Automatic annotation (TrEMBL), chain A:
It is found in: Cell membrane. Belongs to the chromate ion transporter (CHR) (TC 2.A.51) family. It comes from Halanaerobium saccharolyticum. This is Chromate transporter. PANTHER family: CHROMATE TRANSPORT PROTEIN-RELATED (PTHR43663), CHROMATE TRANSPORTER (PTHR43663:SF1). InterPro entries: CHR_Transporter, Chromate_transpt.
Automatic annotation (TrEMBL), chain B:
It holds the Pfam family Chromate_transp. The chain crosses the membrane at residues 7-28, 76-97, 109-128, 148-164. PANTHER family: CHROMATE TRANSPORT PROTEIN-RELATED, CHROMATE TRANSPORTER. InterPro entries: CHR_Transporter, Chromate_transpt. It is found in: Cell membrane. This is Chromate transporter. Belongs to the chromate ion transporter (CHR) (TC 2.A.51) family. One of its GO terms (cellular component) is plasma membrane. It is a multi-pass membrane protein.
């Protein structure tokens, strides 16, 4: 099958089953693109999500665009985003047309209340898997806990959490001397590839 | 020209709403008041529907308002307007990210960001659970620890979590099953 069409269809599926914010799409993206197709690395999804969180716009759309671009450039980005948005367009248009007085609203809300619980369970599962695949250092654990507590207790904006943790990451690698080594290798590699 | 107004107004929301669909809601409410596109009751119903149907909340709300204002083309145009800034900004970022993601500074930054993203995702789960599973208001009202949990929800959470860990099925299966359970047992 044409890869663009496949990207569109996968994101159509993701859009059809994402209930709530952008985080709710992660379990399905991981299942489809990492586990089933092996098109991207698990770690990359979380990078894309972090970028989607700290850029203006709807997080889910940002994440879809970012993932689509990584798969197939600008066309991939458009295919993913169109696919993700399409179910909303169809479902909401149908609801707005046929449920003029929203009589069935209770039904949706009962379903949604239970879906939210399923999403909580899926996210706990994802967080456990993220921890299992991480470097499992004390510093990572500290950043995780700090981010969680700042968000939950102090309601701080995710943008600051991401900017702060990025700074922390750079400082940690710098003081361990990893940054300097990596920089040296990176420059050598790039010189090599230019020649 | 209603289509142009819809496109531009939603483009602005997409450009300035930082933090996803819920962050877009206040902007959307302002819009509706400004143009008189909906009544307060319609607005409340619309948000409830947008939250409980698939898709990003902001996108659903945009489709709703656009459709109510100018029919099917209105829905498409409002939604396109909302998504357009994301597509433009993210495409530019993605281009440079692909170029620089091997750069030591970028790699170091993401080594710090990844555990923080886990924290972000965990906090999203916690916020969801705060509404459905923990009943903090009961604790404050009665001081009774026994009423801290909504037991029906807690029970469902444990069962679904056990099933996820044991069967490792596609997430869609758990979401669909939960929807059925929610309707049958009136969650």
């Amino acid at each position: 099958m044409n890869k663009l069409l496949k990207i569109f269809l996968i994101f159509f599926k993701i859009g059809s089953f994402t209930f709530g914010g952008g985080y709710a799409m992660l379990p399905i993206i991981k299942r489809e693109l990492v586990d089933n197709l092996g098109w991207i690395k698990e770690k990359d999804i979380y990078n894309y999500y972090a970028i989607g969180q700290s850029t203006p716009g709807i997080i889910a759309v940002n994440t879809a665009t970012m993932t689509g671009y990584s798969l197939r450039g600008v066309k991939g980005a458009l295919a993913a985003t169109t696919g993700f948005i399409m179910p909303s367009l169809i479902i909401i248009t149908l609801i707005a047309t046929f449920f003029k007085r929203f009589q069935q609203i209770d039904l949706f809300q009962h379903a949604f209340a239970a879906i939210q619980i399923a999403v909580v369970a899926l996210i706990i599962d994802i967080v456990i898997k993220m921890w299992q695949k991480s470097d499992k250092t004390k510093v990572s654990l500290l950043i995780f806990l700090l981010a969680f507590l700042l968000l939950v207790i102090f309601n701080i904006s995710p943008v600051f959490v991401i900017l702060g943790s990025a700074t922390a990451g750079i400082l940690i690698q710098y003081f361990r001397g990893n940054l300097q080594n990596a920089y040296y290798n990176y420059q050598n590699d790039n010189q090599g590839s230019d020649e | 020209m209603i289509y142009l107004t819809l496109f531009l107004e939603f483009f602005k929301v997409g450009l300035f709403a930082l933090g996803g669909g819920l962050a877009a809601l206040p902007f959307l409410q302002d819009l509706i008041v400004k143009y008189g596109w909906m009544t307060a009751e319609e607005l409340l119903n619309m948000i409830a529907i947008s939250e409980s149907t698939p898709g990003a909340i902001g996108i659903n709300t945009a489709t709703f308002i656009g459709f109510n204002t100018a029919g099917i083309p209105g829905g498409i145009i409002a939604t396109t307007g909302l998504a357009a800034p994301s597509i433009i900004i993210i495409t530019i970022i993605a281009h440079y990210f692909r170029k620089f993601n091997q750069h030591p500074l970028v790699e170091s930054a993401f080594s710090g960001i990844r555990p923080a993203v886990a924290g972000l995702i965990a906090s999203a789960a916690f916020e969801l659970a705060r509404g459905g599973i923990f009943q903090l208001q009961n604790l404050q009202l009665n001081g009774s620890l026994l009423e801290l949990f909504d037991y029906k929800s807690l029970f469902l959470l444990l069962i679904i979590f056990a099933a996820i860990r044991k069967f490792k099925k596609h997430p869609i299966i758990y979401i669909s099953t939960a929807a059925l359970i929610g309707i049958i047992f009136k969650f």
